[in-house]
Amino acid sequence: MGTISKETPPELLQDLKVTFQSTSLILPSQETKRQSIFLSNIDRILNFHVETVHFFPFNKDFPPEIVVEMLKKTLAEILVPYDFLAGRLRANPETGRLEIDCNGAGIVFSVASSEYPLDDIGDLVYPNPAFGQLISKSMDNLGQDNQDEPLCFFQITSFKCGGFAMGISTNHINFDGLAFKIFLDNLAALAAGKPLPVAPFNDRRILVARSPPHVDFPHHELLKLEHSCPDPVFEATPEDLDFKIFRLTSDDISDLKEKAKAPSGTHIETRITGFNVVTALVWRCKALSSSDNTSDRISKMLYAVDIRRRLNPPLPRSFTGNGVLTAYAMAKCGELEEAPFWKLVEKVGEAATRMTDEYARSAIDWGEIYRGIPHGEFLLSSWWKLGFEEVDYPWGRPRYSCPVVYRRKDIILLFPDIENRSGVNVLVALPEEEMVRFQSQFHKFLANY
User: Fold this and answer.
1) What is the pTM of this model?
2) Catalytic residue at 443?
3) Per the structure, how many domains does the chain have?
């Protein structure tokens, strides 16, 4: 089974030589209703920005300056149905609970240029920290209070070749990945002069905790916080980390699925999916690469599960809030090392199967009582099947779409490959010694299992 570990490309640019031409506020194209948007207990723990960059090759019919004007107009229009995007976070004066004040204050739009052609900025799949230059969160010259941070920033950066990058930073409170994909589809449709394919459903009270809240399950995936703490924010701990991408082709994934089949006559409930087999492999390698990999140590792995169709009644497909909860799988390191692969895949699948309507409601109520955060050895965050690269803008689909990544050993990312769309890239950041062990476990398993 072939696999590639991608080292830092030697030609990686550390400075894209970006110059800013303008920064402005985009306001809704018409007056919107002044209201407060309730934030669910899922939304409240996601108060941080997520940054994505979408790269577009040269299109003679849509040079960057034309795209800039189209986007300004389109964003003003989309801020009417997505009025919360133009709002600001506020604490409710009566309850102290965080909410969005839909005050029409607007989003930030920046225009910039790079001295390089797109083909010269290097491997788009490799998450170059310099891609952060393609998303500005500056409000200079806007006369804005820096404490009054917008919930969304757009930046168009043109390249010497005529291609451009569209950088977007949105507070995770606004969207989860699925809702953001729908937003991008809606943005593309409006830019093409078409109606919204999916009208957004903005009412987060559909995920309000029960009254009184009651917790019916043990929630090993969550960590209690003191009630005096403010709404929690995930923060990275500065650390010297090695950084690698492990590439799995579609053939590699097919082989893993074969290895995940249980012996004849063994009954298991878990579906053998690409996500489940890749996650099981990554979990095993991460746990066994730890400096404490004694056989009795328990490793707990987390990943997000979409609860839209798991609730009763289901959430609307167009729900714009965060419709995901954290699932967990636990096992002793000795089991992760010695158990047959199908058992690890089964444990990964059981994590999602556990997420019933009753369990999800219990987790939401748990958040109302304890106001905690997800807690495990690491979180596997999957961008693999979100489909950002499939959005049809008037100027074409992106050559590639990716998150702007910061190195954290407690988060492992899955994202699609630019050449093999059915393959997946596994992005891992670990201390050097742990990375050596992770890489050894990864290659050894694929070669010898």
Assistant:
1) 0.93
2) no
3) 2
